[in-house]
Amino acid sequence: MLLDRDSWQEILATLKKHKLRTGLTALGVFWGIFMLVFVLGMGKGLENGVFRGFGERAKNIMFVWPERTTMPYQGFQPGRYPTFRLDDIEAIQETLGDVQHVAPRLSMNNVPVYRKEIGETREIRGELDNMIKVEALKLFTGRYINERDIEEARKVAVVGQRTAELLFGEEEPIGQYIRVQGVEFQVVGTFGPQQVKPWTESDMEAIVIPLTAMYRTFGTGERIDYFVCMAQPNVLVSQVEPQVKDLLKKRHHIHPEDPRGVGSFNLENEFLSITNLFGGIQAFLWFVGIGTLLAGIVGVGNIMLITVKERTKEIGVRKALGAPPSSIVRMVLAESVLITATSGYLGLIVGTFLIWGVSSLMRANDVVLDNFHNPEISLSVGIGSVILLTLSGVIAGAIPARHAARVNPVVALKDE
């Protein structure tokens, strides 16, 4: 759509002649693209906030725990509560090749813990060395429990950050000792959640010791409360879940069709369901934004039709003097694209700046919301908006341009 300097001056003169009409028309396109960018940016902030709740936790994991059975099987009556043990974990790791990590946990709640004269009641967790690999936990100082701690049932402890502050204050906790039910454990590290949420508060206060040390020291028996199972890379945990449950049901004599007996929660399914939900939300926001933009485009098209009608005699003169229809079409399309592009890009800039302002303000004031974080405009939205603006200008001017190209010079010159 190449036009000479005189043509552009003529188009600008026409727009200036009808400033109010041009301004109101441009406002419709400006508002449409502004709303499109704004709602998509805020929608992205909502999406970031929800996914931020997952933290750094692995997505291909599931939680498994025992439940009361509901069906009789092999001489066992319903209502039985199976007990998962450490050898179940070993069987899963040895039998199922699609499983990468199995991290068990056994908890003792409200246990008195002392450091000198300072005492608190805390949750004591018995774990292996791989729980920190699958849960959204962060090591602040020192180290986590390791394989040698497990093999030798060492009396070492990794302390939650809040508990460390309460028991040790400003002192360095690493290398010092705490008493758990009269038994001394050496502190080797401090840990906490990646993000402090209501459901991660317990991680700030818990104390982790080797699972084998818990068995030997407190006589809990080789049982576990639950375990976290991580699938191998490129393996869906939803494929591993039935294999794990079938193996456990077989080992604990639970009916294969019993809906209970072995409970599980699949984080992958939860993650995918939220992903699909936000995919639908994004599609809806695009629909609403494009609908608003189309309203502005219709306004541009109507104004261009009025402009062509007002300039019928002028167009007739041009054609009578030998101007080809293509030049008339280019002139009308150029005017349409100029209105939509100028107002649309302005709306894009204002919308982007507003989203950036909200994000910067939240960071500057350290505002943290559970379900809203870092609103942003992605590159795909920016590119999509530019393409949409270009197409909008062409579409808005297509019908008026076609109407102008069909003007009969004889009829136009007689038009009053």
From TrEMBL:
Question: Which family is annotated?
Answer: Belongs to the ABC-4 integral membrane protein family.
Q: Which organism is it from?
A: Phaeodactylibacter xiamenensis
Q: Which domain of life is it from?
A: Bacteria
Q: TM segments?
A: 20-42, 283-308, 328-357, 377-399
Specify one Pfam family.
FtsX
Segment forming the signal sequence: none
Q: Keywords in UniProt for this one?
A: Cell membrane, Membrane, Transmembrane, Transmembrane helix
Q: What is this protein called?
A: ABC transporter ATP-binding protein
| InterPro entries, per the entry | ABC3_permease_C, MacB_PCD, Macrolide_Exporter_MacB
Q: How does it sit in the membrane?
A: Multi-pass membrane protein
The MacB-like periplasmic core domain sits at 22-246
Matching entries from PANTHER family are given as: ABC TRANSPORTER PERMEASE YTRF (PTHR30572:SF4), MEMBRANE COMPONENT OF TRANSPORTER-RELATED (PTHR30572)
